[in-house]
Design a protein that fits this description.
The chain is an alpha+beta fold and 479 residues long. It has 4 domains: 3-142, Beta Polymerase, domain 2; 144-226, Hydrophobic Seed Protein (Orthogonal Bundle), CATH 1.10.110; 236-427, no CATH class; 433-475, no CATH class. Helix content is 57%, strand content 10%. It has helices at residues 3-8, 10-22, 31-38, 54-64, 101-106, 119-125, 136-142, 152-155, 159-170, 176-184, 194-206, 210-220, 222-226, 246-262, 264-267, 272-279, 289-299, 304-307, 320-334, 339-350, 354-359, 366-375, 380-392, 398-427, 433-440, 446-460, 467-475, and strands spanning 26-29, 47-50, 68-73, 76-82, 88-95, 116-118, 144-145, 173-174, 282-284, 287-288, 309-311, 314-316. A hairpin with a 2-residue loop joins strand 3 (68-73) and strand 4 (76-82). The N and C termini lie far apart (65 Å). The model is unreliable at 423-427 (pLDDT under 50).
Amino acid sequence: MNLHKLKDLPPVQIACQLARETGVPIYLVGGAVRDTLTGVFFAGDCDFAVGGKFEEIVAAFTHRIKGHAIPWDFHQTRIVYRTALGGFESVDFAQCKAPDIDGDLRLRDFTINAMAFDLRRLCETGDPALIDPLGGRQDLQNKIIRMCSSRSFDDDPLRMLRAVRFARQFGYTIDFPTFSLCTEKHALITGVSTERIKKELFTILHLPTPAVSLRQLMQMGFMGIFLPQIAGWPHVEQCAPHEHTLFEHSMLTVEKLTHIFDDLAALCPASARSVHQYFDEVLEEGVTRRALLVFTALLHDSGKPGAAQEVGGKRHFHGHEQSGAIINKAIAERLGLGRRCRRAVELATANHMRLLQLSLLEQPTPRAKVRLVRDCEDVVVEVVLLAIADMMATSSDPAYLLRLESTRALAAELIKKFFETTLEQGNQQLLTGSDIMSELAIDSCPRVGQLLQELHRAEREGRINTRDEALAWLKTKKD
C-alpha cells in the first residue's frame, strides 16, 4: 500500500483530524507501519499511539467512527466498527509509555515493529516523517528479527515465542543476539498465562515450515517446558522399517505433513480445495485444524517409550497408539486446549496406524472402510493425512515405498468419500433434528444428536436409504 492510499483510510483520517484539533501527537505504530513499508498492509491493522489526553481522544474517535470501545489492557483500548461494506474491523489505541514517541518505540518487542508515522504530518504534507530510532527499516530490508533491547523479554516473555512466529510468518531470520537471549531467558515463559502461550504456539504451528519453528523452540529450551516428554526422544531407537530415532521421525512426520498440505492436488486431486478449506477451520480461539494436526503429528508416537519391548532381539512398540492417545489427551489439556480439540488429538493418535493396517489387506472391504470412518468420528481426514505423513517419514526402502503408494490411493478414496458424504448429509438429510423432536415428542436434548449420529452411521452402512425407512427406524426408538 502506498502512502496516498494509507492517508485515505477512514481510521487514519479521523486520527489526523483529532491530532489537528487537539494538538495531541497521534502516531500510526507497530505492525501497520512495518506492513505499509513492505506493501502488504490493510485497513484492519491500524494501531495508534497517543501522546496525551488518552481518554478524550479514544472517546472522540469512537464517536466519529460510530464504533464500540473495549478496554484491552492498561492504557490500551480496542475500537470495533462497521465498515462501508458491512463487515467489522478494529483499531487499537495505546497511550505512549514514555515521554516521547522515541522512548515508546524503544520499549517495543522487535525493531521491525518499533517504527511510527506522524499522522498529522502525513495528512498535512503527505510526508509521514518515519520515526525509526532503532533501525527497523534496515532490518526489514535485511529480513532480520532483532530485539529492541536486552529488556524486551523481561518486559513480556511471550515476545520470545513471537520472535519464532515472525520469523516463519515473514520468512525472516532471528539475529544471533536475539536467539541467544531467548535461549538464556526461556524459563521466563513459565510466568505467562497458559492461554497466551497456547494462542502463540498454535499460530506458529499453522504457519509454513512448522518443523523449522519446532526445532528452534527445541534449541531455545521451550519444548522442555511445554512438552517435557520429548526430552528423551533423541535417544529412543526404533525397529525396522524405521530409519530414524523417535525424535527425528516425529520431526520428519511434521515436515512430510507440510509437504502434503503444500501439494494436496497430488494426493487427492478431486478433494484438494475442500481439504484446504477444512484445515483452515478454527476449532477454538487461536487453534485451526491444520495447527492441531501438526501438533498431533509431532506427538503421534508419544506412547512408544512406555510401550517399548525387546522380543527376539528386536524392539517393538505394540499398543503405543492407545497409550499415546491417553498421553496426548493429557498434554492437550495441560496446554489449555478445549474438549473438542482434546478429543481430536486423542482420536487421531489412537487411529494413526489404521490406514496402514487397512492397506495391508489384499482387498479392503467396504465394511472395513466404514469401520475406520466410524471409529475416527469427525477426524477421518486428520487420521488419513497423519498416516501418510507417518509412512513418508519412516523408510526409504523401495518395497516400503511401494506400499506407501497403495496406501496413498486408499487415502484419496477415503478423503473423497468423506467430503461427498458430508455434502450429501448437508443437502439431503433423511431426517433433521426437528423431525426427530416432532416424531418422538421431545425437546432439544443430547438424545437428538445421538439419534442423528446413529442414523448417519446406518446410512453409511447402507442399512437405511430412504426417508420412509428412516421414519420407520425412528419409530423403534420411541420409549
